[in-house]
Design goal:
It is built from three helices and four strands; from the N terminus they run E-H-E-E-H-E-H. Strand 2 and strand 3 (about 45) form a beta hairpin. The protein has a four-stranded antiparallel sheet with strand order 2-3-1-4, covered by helices on one side. Helix 1 (about 20-30) runs antiparallel to helix 2 (about 50-65). With about 100 residues, the chain is α+β, with helices and mostly antiparallel strands.
């Protein structure tokens, strides 16, 4: 499965930023050893259901350290029997773009 998630604690920087808290969450994901990527809006992580959800839980806890409230947005692509889709899905789109489809 691939999970795309965004975590944001309440009460970030005075200017509304939450980059420090999000960095703590991303660190948990990267240290998990699971395939992952981070962009401006979401962190994507790929693996089996239990291991992915464990990483998301720990990332939320890390981001929310010291905060009374945390928001979580999560989207999952559950496709049993498929691995390596974090890159393969993008590769298929790029192939269509090269072919003019």
């Amino acid at each position: 499965m691939i999970v795309a998630f965004s975590v944001s604690p309440a009460g970030g920087d005075p200017d509304g930023g939450v980059s420090e808290a999000v960095a703590r969450a991303v660190k948990v994901v990267r240290e998990s050893g699971l395939p992952n990527s981070t962009n401006a809006m979401f962190t994507n992580v790929e693996g089996e259901w239990d291991e992915v959800m464990d990483v998301v839980k720990r990332a939320v806890e890390a981001a929310g350290a010291g905060s009374a409230r945390v928001g979580l947005v999560l989207k999952a692509d559950i496709r049993p029997g498929f691995e390596g889709q974090l890159e393969a899905k993008v590769d298929r789109i790029e192939a269509h773009l090269r072919d003019g489809s």
